[in-house]
Amino acid sequence: MNGPAPDRAAKTAVALVACPDYDEDRVEAALRRGVDLLGGIGRFASAAEHILLKPNVLTGAVAEKHVTTHPAVFKAMGRLLLEKGVHVRYGDSPGFGGFTAAAVKSGLAKAAGEIGIEMADFSSAVQVSFSEALIAKQLVLAREALDADGIIGLSKMKTHGFMRVTGAVKNQFGCVPGLRKGEYHVKMPRSEHFAAMLVDVCRRLKPRLNVMDGIVAMEGNGPGSGTPRPMNVLLLSADPLALDAVFCRLVHMPPLNVPTMKPGAESGLGTWAEDTIAVLGDDPARFACPGFKVVRQPPVPFDRSFPYYLKKWITPRPVIDPGRCQQCGVCSEVCPLEPKAVATAAPADQNSPPVYDYRRCIRCYCCQEMCPHGAIAIRRPVLSRLIHP
Ligand code: SF4
Ligand code: SF4
């Protein structure tokens, strides 16, 4: 790698560049500008290296829903690398279903075909030891993510029920193949433990560059069923934590209420503090969105051993809107518990939505995340709202 690094004066650089829409030329120009602000593509990849692009493909959804990284952002990054003679592949492991179908539906497969980059195979997993881990000393990760010379993360600016926001740090969780992701939820139901594991995954994979597609973000019931919200920005940084912190500030979310921030900073993944981050490019004040719909309170403490009344009165729970539910059963399929804590109704009652067993539910919100019809919301009990208005 080569090229001058920006003068950070001991600060972490985050590039913020305006981009009004997904017109391919405008996206490419904005992305090039952002990369140049950070010192140029040569800082992040060299000719003949093998670089993995890691978009956010939570599930198979058309680009217009803004669940997934937009193909125009993906394509622009691919082009930048290819013209430098870099070997590029791309991959992710969706929360439900296969990546190939999800890549086709999201438009990424078409974009990849147009510029000539191949799909990586994330089905082959490797168990790796990580002695410096905060919590996950053994990690199971996609072989292709580990074998690449470097990773460039292409996250999407979205809300997230469990982690409050999903961005550069959480994006690397998609390098944990398939159902293994559910196992982490079962082993680490506490938000602080799960966040520490996310930090471990990101530290182990060390993405060289993190890009966030915030041209149209997702607010509200994210990460799969929220509402598109134009934010008109791309964010880029070598520091995934700083990038997520800038996203937080744009939407007036206290960064420390995002559970990955504290373990991320303490373990050396990056920095979240405002006075340690230099925002390069356009003025963040132009893109501030105080009305962005995101839960700004920190996650409510939860432990499986809590008495039921605590879970019932304090811990937010997933609730199905019967008017939207299509009885597809995805919520039950993705529930990581066995037996499931949300089960389809008895055959005699086939038109009813699935039923929750809230006594067993660990509040991982995987069902809310993956419901393809936006029928599940996270409801905060009254007491929880009194504690954190
Ligand atoms: S995933 Fe959503 S639509 Fe499908 S059964 Fe569950 S609640 Fe209903
Ligand atoms: S019912 Fe939903 S929130 Fe509860 S454990 Fe299952 S997937 Fe997680």
Write the layout of secondary structure elements.
Blueprint: E1 12-18, H1 24-37, E2 50-55, H2 71-82, E3 87-90, H3 99-106, H4 108-115, E4 118-119, E5 125-129, E6 138-142, H5 143-147, E7 150-160, E8 164-166, H6 168-171, H7 180-187, H8 191-205, E9 209-219, E10 227-237, H9 240-250, H10 261-266, E11 277-281, H11 308-314, E12 317-320, H12 330-334, E13 342-343, E14 355-356, H13 366-370, E15 376-379, H14 382-387
Parallel strand pairs: 1-11, 2-3, 2-7, 3-4, 7-9
Antiparallel strand pairs: 1-10, 5-6, 7-8, 9-10, 12-15, 13-14
The protein binds iron/sulfur cluster (2 copies).
One iron/sulfur cluster (SF4) is lined by residues 320, 325-331, 353-354, 371, 373, 375-376.
